[in-house]
Amino acid sequence: QGGGSAVIDMENMDDTSGSSFEDMGEMHQRMKEEEEEEEGEAGAAEEEDGEFLGMKGLRGQLGRQVADQMWQVGKRQASRAFSLYANIDILRPYFDVEPVQVRARLLESMIPVKMINFPQKIAGELYGPLMLVFTLVAILLHGMKTSDTIIREGTLMGTAIGTCFGYWLGVSSFIYFLAYLCNAQITMVQMLSLLGYGLFGHCITLFVTYNIHFHSLFYIFWLGVGGLSTLRMVAVLVSRTVGHTQRLILCGTLAALHMLFLLYLHFAYHKVVEGILDTLEGPNMPPFQRVARDIPVVSNAVLNTTAKAMALTL
Amino acid sequence: FAGLADVSISEDIPVEGEITVPVGSHSPDEDYSTLDEPVRDTIMRDLKAVGKKFVHVMYPKKSSALLRDWDLWGPLVLCVSLALMLQGGSADSKDDGGPQFAEVFVIIWFGAVVITLNSKLLGGTISFFQSLCVLGYCVLPLTVAMLVCRLVLLAGSGTVSFIIRLIVVMAMFAWSTLASTAFLADSQPPNRKALVVYPIFLFYFVISWMILTFTPQ
């Protein structure tokens, strides 16, 4: 093994029991050895039983050749199918990064660029965004557990993974589609990378505010950190788009979705949602189950009135 | 060209040699002979191999035994026992607040597959199943932590028990991460070790989180 291909090479696996390819391979090998032995024997016994042995030998050889051919065709087809589907080498160039580069890109994702007159370079890398999405999943789980969110029709892990991956892949595709309509110069991998690194701000904000439960702190972080990462993404997109209307559509959509997602993550998974779920069940359930928490009185009152208003409207 | 006319082999020199290829030591027969041994021998052999790997995980040295003879029995046993112990952690009998069996199972195997693919894409030299084997075996300290947590929770569930559980889980989480790093990071180019260690850290962090927040009914 070396730094060569990363094909998942099933034929060289160590388990030999039960795999029909290995069995066919061994049968093939033994058939070859038997053939050589029989050639020696057939020559000696030829004088005794000439015709009869000749017939038996012929049919046996024919059968063996047919089996041999079938095995070889099957082997060729299977290895072709494997090299087509199990070849993860197509993803290799997107993971070719050094830790210093990842760190630099993470810090850069919070700094909006000033030059929007010529296209900014976006690194088409998938390692950083993928790790950031998984980190966001872990932070969401932490938030859901500390707020005792009880989700009925799904599971905690499933919800967290679905939300984060759905946002990353779905919004990337949607913005890529809009970029295609607005004639922006960006490829799908670059869009995935840009949005993925934009989630770094979300990770920081949620990590801090899930542990320190002050609503005013959350709003400051939302505007500050969330705003910075959104500004960076918007600036990069603006530098790659021509025309005022197109820039406005593209960047407005991205900014709105990004900021609203952070808002949604904080309120949906940090505060209890089960009040709403319970209200949907029947009129006899109380509209809200409070969780005791250290929240200053002001935001407490705000939340109370909001919750009552929402329960009334539902 | 007069000298070349004489190149033909004269007919009275016999051309001789061996045509048949020696068949060798009949090694397929030796493998098939394990079919004849009593079942007890087969099971004991596999159990001993699994036990030896457990010992390697608890005292992680740079040995290649874990990598060379990989097997997935140990990870399966650990995964199933961890998932069984994490059941029944719901706060209410009506709805399920704790992770289901299938959830834990899927998290462990899906997480291990993702980490393996990641380390292969970053240029690792370890094979797919070897990596799965190592990651699965390194769940052992966390399973031990789960056992300890359950026992501590039998005694009571106050602040003291939470602090004890927190310390135990954190220690076992560090042990798991260090053990799997000791086996897996060697197969990477030296400047990219941090890129491989981080997903392993996240993976064991999620499992530790599930163990720590487990509250029995």
UniProtKB/TrEMBL annotation, chain A:
Any one GO CC term of the record: plasma membrane
Compartmental location: Cell membrane; Cytoplasm; Golgi apparatus, cis-Golgi network membrane
Compositionally biased tracts (Acidic residues): 34-50
Predominant place of localization: membrane
Region (Disordered) residue spans: 1-50
GO BP term, pick one: cell differentiation
Topology with respect to the bilayer: Multi-pass membrane protein
Spans traversing the lipid bilayer: 126-144, 156-182, 194-213, 219-239, 248-269
Matching InterPro entries: tRNA_Mod/Golgi_Maint (IPR051521)
Swiss-Prot/TrEMBL keywords: Cell membrane, Cytoplasm, Differentiation, Glycoprotein, Golgi apparatus, Membrane, Transmembrane, Transmembrane helix
Keyword Transmembrane helix: yes
Keyword Transmembrane included in the entry's annotation: yes
Protein family: Belongs to the YIP1 family.
Record function comment: Involved in the maintenance of the Golgi structure. May play a role in hematopoiesis.
Name this protein carries in UniProt: Protein YIPF3
Annotated organism of origin: Thinocorus orbignyianus
Recorded name of the encoding gene: Yipf3
TrEMBL record, chain B:
Any Gene Ontology CC annotation: Golgi membrane
Membrane topology summary: Multi-pass membrane protein
TM region positions: 70-89, 101-122, 134-156, 162-184, 196-215
GO biological process: endoplasmic reticulum to Golgi vesicle-mediated transport
Superkingdom, taxonomy of origin: Eukaryota
UniProt subcellular location: Golgi apparatus membrane; Membrane
Domain Yip1: 59-210
Keyword Transmembrane helix carried by entry: yes
Alphabetized InterPro entries for the sequence: Yip1/4-like, Yip1_dom
Alphabetically ordered keywords of this record: Membrane, Transmembrane, Transmembrane helix
Protein family membership: Belongs to the YIP1 family.
Record protein name field: Protein YIPF
Species annotation: Thinocorus orbignyianus
Gene label: Yipf6
